[in-house]
Amino acid sequence: MGELRLLGAVLAVVDGEVVDLGPARQRCVLAALAVDAGQVVSVDRLIDRVWGGRAPLRARQTLVNYLSRLRLVLTAGALVRRSGGYVLEIAPGEIDLHRFQDLCARARAEDDRRAAELWSEALGLWHGEALTGLGGEWAEAERTRLHRLRLAAESDHADAVLRLGGGEDLVTALSARVAEHPLDERVAGQYLLALHRAGRTADALEHYRSLREHLVEELGTDPGPELRDVHRRVLAAEPDLSAEDAVPRQLPAAPRRFVGRGPELSSVDKALAGAGASVAISGPGGIGKTWLALAWAHRNAHRFPGGQLFADLRGFGTGEPKPAADVLADFLTALGCDRLPPDVDARAALYRTRTTGKCLLIVLDNAATAAQVVPLLPGGDTCTVLVTSRNRLSSLVTRHGTEPVSLGVLTDTEARALLQGVPDAVPGLTALCGGFPLALGLIAARASSCPDLVTELRDLGVEALHADDPDASLPAVLSWSLHHLTDRQRDVFGLLGVAPGPDIDLAAATSLTGLSTRDTREAVHALAEASLVTLTAGHRIAMHDLVRAYAATTATGAARPALDRVTDFYLDSACAADLLLDPHRDPAQPAPPASGVRPADVPAALAWLDAHHPHLLAAQRSAAAHGRDQAAWHLAWALTTFHWWRSRRDDELAVWRVAAAGHLGVAEQVAAHRHLGQAHVELGRHQEGIGFLVRALEVAERHEEVTQQALTHHALTRAWELDGDDRQALEHARHALRLFRDLGQPTREADTLNTVGWFLACLGEHDPAREHCQAAVALNRRHRNPDGEAAALDSVGWIDHRTGRHEQAVEHYRAALALRRGLGNTTWAASSLDHLGHPLAALGRHDDARAAWREAVELYREQGRDDDADRLQRLIDA
Length: 878
Fold this sequence. Notes:
Helix content is 62%, strand content 6%. It has 878 residues and is of the alpha/beta class. Among the domains are: 1-162, Winged helix-like DNA-binding domain superfamily/Winged helix DNA-binding domain (Arc Repressor Mutant, subunit A); 262-406, 3-Layer(aba) Sandwich (Rossmann fold); 412-482, no CATH class; 487-556, Winged helix-like DNA-binding domain superfamily/Winged helix DNA-binding domain (Arc Repressor Mutant, subunit A), CATH 1.10.10; 745-878, Serine Threonine Protein Phosphatase 5, Tetratricopeptide repeat, CATH 1.25.40.10.
């Protein structure tokens, strides 16, 4: 047609010309149809929208007259009479309101830089107050609704710009918004930060003071914790105010073909009307639970300034359900935590701390049991939780007050709406699909590109779709969808069904298929057009679990070579990332030929490993199941540094259990048992861990594997230290030092020099301890190992403090702290700050000591190290 504008004065552009839409009520008729473009709007509803409760006696005839006049000025076929009402047949992209909503939905699924661009584009569609010139109750209510959507988009846009470090250009717009909404704390926080970024810190502080007075006078309350935190940081002039608490935007894109579900949406609306509520949507596979959850989430995203968290718990897909520890790791990372506690309980505690006081929407999709969900429930009473599952999750309802919403098949009317465009000559098609959105959506996708749909359905035997068990009909629908694909597209479909992990990106999919990147991309887009795969945020390729299960049954003999290729891709990429994290570590053997990605630096390596961790675990299990024991071992090796950096102790234990079960050489067996022992020790199972380590040492000695002996002795030092026996730990450290010197491995020698020095200091032998640790500092510097240098400097600082050399201790601790901050190693930076405070206090510099301890407490809390945080807080308060 051209363009129809509702976000301002109602006007239409046809063939490049603005057309006359007639008087206000006639324009209201067009607006009433346009907000629901593509859907039938009943005559009664149109009358209600145009006249409200004051419709004239000849309202129907007048409405028909208006519609007739609109047909004359709009493109032919744009306004159509249908059974029960009228429909505006205009593509959503031609109506500014629908473009605005689509751009906002896309923005919520993108990173901040792209989201800011999309929100800016969406807000650029507005040309004043929506529906300008239209009166009546419906127009006023719709105008209010659209105004709220605009305000939400403006706030989301401002948040994104501020997180990117900008804000100076927002001051004018935010000033107007603050004047319009003087008690809105989200807008106030944005305004404070923008003023500060514009060099107007005094104005920012004055605005906070004024707002606080108004809140106390009018509401009897102080500002909330998030606004208070912004004020504190502005007041302290913190240098990196761009590092706001992370605001995650994890929702996948809104469903394109969502229809109906009015009663269910109303039930969710009612249940989640207040803060801190939760809903569990249950129903069989393919019934549309995720569609409903995402549709509601996108419609209400503006209610959650703290952001949205989303996780597919994989309760009913291939493989094991996603462990709560992994989901918590993902959520905490999204919320800005650099280091994670090792066990699930500590992660859950930190997660509750980080979510308390925030207004977050948390969507937990495809849950298997209530036990999988409970650790993921947030802290406080300000977050909203939406769960989907094929099970009813009764204990969530009874113990946690979750409201249940049961989902059934679509009604005939809803099913017909989903099949809009499919020829009416297909009798009983909605009944044959059982009202299941998954089956109906596949047929609707095919209908858009198949003019001979009726004939093909008859030829292919549409009767096969009918089944008493709705799930049993899906293979028939899916097989029919495959009929229209090329051989290559069908092959790619089958291979995607066996790919390891919950989804896959294009680079990994290219290795899986063995095709070029271009051919793989073309095949994937064809599958997406057929609704057989979904392209999610970050351009990942995902499948509904029922589709995936069916796809795996179609995989040919090419599946095994494909699995080998993608496993090699993941292994090679993980090895490259691991080498960046620890360049002094012996690299795992890369998969020949080199086929993986090459991260540019440490942040890129961590980002790749964070994103692909579940795929790497799945690839390792797949390799072990197919007898590729070397690949399984090397994947465990390549993940070890990452697991230590991210405190994924359970995952570290799991990968080495898989690796140790394979047929391995002696050195690999010893390494596997050593890592199993270390993982047990770090999980608090000291004696079990020591047992693994002792057996590993015995095998290494029997086979004269000197490097493995040295490494295992060094691992035993940590085990005995945690078990409380420093003398045993020192004995093993001395063994390791002698062996590393004989082997000519200087970085490991430096590490072990520091370890020997540490345990000498613990046993009161301070002079030889200092000599060992200073030698470790020098050797690490010579071989450019800043991580080892920081550890040795920290040890020297501890020895100086213990021997009364407090000034030297401060100097060494600060040098260690600077190195650790430079490396981004916040776990050990917290320990250095903790240590630094003690010699400062001994020197009488109590303010400096408390400042160091406060920073350490903040890091300890983020890392789930609450005992350490509580210990330091007592010192601060003393």
